[in-house]
Specification:
heterodimer, A: 263 residues, alpha/beta, Rossmann fold, 2 domains, 4-stranded parallel beta sheet, 42% helix, 11% strand, globular, B: mainly alpha
Chain lengths: 263, 434
């Protein structure tokens, strides 16, 4: 495996350099074993395309999203203001992140607290890299003929109206993109949002991720693709619930693209 | 000359009582907290025209959308005929506009008649959906009792209204053979009323005429007590829609002030509040309806309890207690109660009850995933999520009542900058892991 080139902002600054874009890794992308694979897939692509990027490393901290959704505005704003101090200290202008929750918070909720940046989701960056010819997918397509369904993360789709970038990427893979009955604006949540990821669900008759995975499996996909580390966890657990983990993979769009580009 | 007087009296009482009730609703909505929704009027008009006037979001579900559109179109167009009824009533005239408008008059009435038939069909189907087919979202637990009766009553009133129109027009056609050429009543008039003597026909025509106008006023005055108020409030409610991205939650200015104070080493924590600043701090989040914004309260009066929100809510679909529709219904019910209390007992009266606790339980609000499906679904841009979030804010920041697992998550964020217990220095470990 080739060594990943992951400069930190501090290292770059010491060298008197500044990156074009900051990769906001997020807590899941930094600590969750499954999400770390997504992080690495994205970095491989960034390295391949020679994108001049950096990460904050140890200086990155939770955006405060789960605190805000849980109703703790104090914790959220403390986190936000500390992060804004760090980001502004490095004069960050543009941010990419593979987590729709970080994406939403940085893009929509930081400006009012003084943090104004151009924030994009990694599917938007990948789309740009491919469209501009910087990233080439290998011929013959690793996924050729496979059936893939895309689960819309709420904080990417409904919350920010990004529906096409991930679909556009999947369609470049020469695969059959099948839509679930509830998709795009009508997409059903995976069950993790609103700080639910960190607590047991309230009493009910079914887990939300089971309901969603059931729907995804109805279209008989080979792969359930998504663009959020939390959705990924929920859908992976859902697939295990139906004992289908040998037949159906849950992958992030970045992983699909990295594989298709033979990285 | 008794008719114009009677009619004038009906007008005054009908509009007067309605106006009085509207003022009550208005003053109730104004109990909410301030919120600026005056910006960007261009985008606001556009939203209102598309979403309220054009019913854009209804068409996500085409069958009820078409049926609803038939009733809506009939309702809007019938208002034109109502102008004539008012003129006739005040002047003791009969079809005042018929002569001056000529062929266009026939076209207008015919158009209204065709729409009325479509509306009648739609009404019957809607009754069937509620009472025979029992469409799940229309018969859920919060729809028992008054909400169920309310829904049916509106539909029955519509049927009576349409029957009055056709009795009026049909009897008129039978009374004056060959004079009117209306699309529907020219057919059903002779069929139903043909052969009756002119006196009976005249009485029938009068029953239809008075019945129609009486139902219009009954309907108008029923609105402020009913979920059906949406036919009016849909317009301002969509005009004042949230134009921001749905994922953006409001920033709490009061917290910003505190946090800035905490982060500023030169700040004097004991400084007296600046001139003009409120000395009594506002409650964080919402415990009762008066802690919500006026838009939240307008939302609650606009809700017509269609349940699209609830039928798309992941928590509700999987059997949790949360129903976004119930959040709106509870908010409205509590607001009516608070408003009545204030009018009866003075503005400082406290009945010891609150929205959170007496109407909405903690279990409901903690089931929300903040996925925005309810906000997306609502055909009149109601936002149940912002109420849920404000109730959470109150619980967490005022009462420190947080589900246990979330306490751990919050502590982790505060201590080590991640919702899990990892050291911030390990953030980049993934780089070197195989």
């Amino acid at each position: 495996m080739s060594v990943l080139n992951v400069p930190t902002m501090a290292e770059m600054m010491a060298k008197g350099e500044s990156p074009d874009i900051l990769f906001w890794v997020g807590c899941a992308g930094s600590f969750d074993d499954r999400a770390k694979k997504i992080t690495k897939a994205l970095v491989k692509i960034l390295n391949e395309c020679k994108v001049n990027f950096a990460v904050l490393g140890a200086e990155e901290s939770c955006t405060g999203d789960p605190a805000k959704r849980a109703g703790n505005e104090f914790t959220f704003q403390m986190q936000a203001m500390m992060n804004i101090q760090v980001l502004d200290g490095y004069e960050v202008k543009k941010i990419v992140t593979a987590c729709p929750h970080c994406f939403n918070t940085l893009k929509n909720e930081y400006p009012e607290l003084g943090g104004k940046y151009e924030v994009i989701h990694h599917t938007q960056l990948l789309q740009e890299l491919i469209n501009q010819g910087q990233l080439k997918l290998k011929d013959g397509g690793t996924f050729k003929g496979k059936k893939i369904t895309f689960h819309d993360p709420c904080y990417l789709g409904r919350a920010n109206d990004v529906y096409e970038a991930p679909r556009d990427l999947i369609e470049k893979l020469d695969v059959e993109l099948v839509e679930m009955k509830r998709c795009k604006t009508n997409g059903l949540c995976c069950g993790a949002g609103g700080a639910q990821m960190f607590k047991e669900a309230e009493k009910g008759n079914k887990e939300i991720n089971v309901e969603r995975t059931e729907e995804a499996l109805e279209s008989n996909p080979d792969i359930i693709a998504t663009g959020c580390p939390f959705c990924n966890t929920m859908m992976t657990d859902g697939v295990k619930n139906f004992n289908k983990e040998d037949q159906v993979e849950v992958l992030d769009v970045a992983e699909l693209i990295a594989t298709a580009a033979d990285l | 000359m008794i008719t114009p007087i009677l009619f004038g009296l009906l007008l005054v009482v009908g509009f007067g009582f309605f106006g009085w009730n509207v003022m009550k609703v208005r003053s109730n909505i104004k109990l909410g907290r301030e919120l600026d929704r005056k910006d960007n009027s261009g985008a606001r008009w556009k939203t209102m025209i598309l979403v309220a006037f054009g019913q854009q979001k209804m068409f996500a579900r085409p069958i009820p959308a078409l049926l609803h559109f038939a009733i809506y179109a009939a309702f809007v167009i019938t208002q034109i005929e109502l102008i004539e009824i008012v003129v006739d009533g005040l002047s003791s005239g009969h079809r005042t506009f018929a002569d001056s408008l000529g062929g266009f008059y026939t076209f207008m009435i015919s158009f209204i008649e065709i729409l009325s038939v479509l509306a009648l069909i739609a009404t019957v189907i809607f009754l069937a959906r509620r009472n025979l087919i029992k469409v799940p979202r229309l018969v859920m637990s919060e729809m028992k009792g008054w909400p169920k009766m309310d829904g049916n009553m509106i539909l029955f009133m519509e049927i009576i209204l349409v029957c009055c129109i056709f009795t009026m027009n049909g009897a008129d056609v039978a009374l004056h053979p060959g004079e009117y050429n209306f699309a529907i009543s020219s057919l059903i008039g002779p069929a139903l009323f043909g052969g009756m003597n002119p006196e009976t026909l005249h009485v029938l025509e009068q029953i239809g005429w008075w019945g129609h106008i009486f139902m219009v006023f009954a309907f108008l005055n029923y609105l402020p007590y009913s979920k059906h108020f949406h036919i009016l409030l849909a317009f301002p409610n969509t005009y004042y829609s949230n134009l921001e991205k749905k994922g953006k939650f409001t920033n709490m200015e009061s917290v910003t002030k505190e946090v800035k104070l905490m982060m500023d080493p030169t700040a004097d924590p004991f400084a007296a509040p600046a001139e003009g600043e409120a000395t009594e701090p506002q409650r964080f989040g919402a415990k009762d309806v008066t802690d919500l914004t006026w838009k939240n309260l307008m939302d609650s009066y606009t809700c017509t309890e269609c349940g699209r929100c609830t039928s798309s809510c992941p928590a509700n679909i999987t059997g949790k207690l949360l129903s976004p529709r119930k959040i709106m219904m509870d908010t409205r019910d509590r607001l009516v109660e608070v408003g009545d209390n204030k009018r009866k007992h003075g503005s400082d009266y406290d009945d010891g009850k609150s929205l959170l606790g007496d109407y909405i339980t903690e279990e409901e609000i903690w089931a929300c995933t903040s996925c925005n499906a309810c906000v997306q679904e609502c055909p009149v841009n109601i936002d149940p999520l912002s109420i849920i979030v404000d109730l959470r804010r109150y619980l967490v920041m005022e009462e420190s009542k947080v589900p246990t697992e979330l306490t751990g998550m919050l502590t982790n964020i505060e201590n080590n900058g991640a919702p899990w217990q990892f050291s911030p220095t390990d953030r980049l470990n993934w780089k070197d892991e195989a």
